[in-house]
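Below is how a single chain appears once it has passed through the pipeline. First comes the sequence as given, then the structure the pipeline wrote out for it. We keep one example in the README because the format questions we get most often are answered faster by looking than by reading.
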Amino acid sequence: MLRGFQLFGLFSRISILNEMQYRANFFIQVFQSALTLTTGLIVMNVVFSYTQTLGGWTHSELLAIYGVFFLMSGIVGALIFPNIWAFMEDVREGRLDFILTKPEDAQVLISVRQLALWRLVDVIIGVVVLAIALTQIGQQGSWLQALAFGTALLMGAVILYSIILIASTAAFWSVRVWEMMEMIGSIFQAGRWPVGIYPDWLRLGLTYLIPVAFAVTVPAEALTGRLTPQTLLFTFFFTIFLAFISRKIWFYGLKNYTGASA
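Resulting structure:
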């Protein structure tokens, strides 16, 4: 575990140096994020011009969900997707051999090589939106709520990583995996709204297939005082389960990798 953090720190420094060569990307990312935020807030205000609550969530509470959504989008966009895209490209080009010959855990290596620095703009925006939402709610927040939020956010990130890794291992058998990854990214956009507002069949999908509920709604519930100990405990076991399954599928996929020599 410690070695993984050390590798992450090393690769992050290299990625930051590379990203700093293209500083124009920062302004592009700020523009894109600002446009997404503005569009989302406009839609939210239009919705709440017709109702006081949406699925039991007030305007300020929904703003908290939107903040968590932005925060998690930044984490996924900066840390998870860049590494997964690079991994799938390595499989397609036969370059994964270079990773497998290293004296480190291959899954750790393919998970920490890339850092999309400018996507962390979304993390900053998410924190600001969350602060505004909590101020509007009038939520003082206890250390217990802060701990529950941090724990739920971490577990949500692990859950998304596990699901995305599982989907990406299809690259060991097929070259048409990009569409699946883009579909996951599109479905994740549903996380800007509480999953409780969706029909039962879609809510189940957003809870267990593409677990947007655990990644966004549960952390928001922790901040707004809605989270129950039972939900947090279930999230913990679900996180362990998905991490275990993704690890098993990863090793199974490696057995089917033929490499550049094939």
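Residues 67 and 129 are 5 Å apart (CA to CA).

See the next section for the split statistics.
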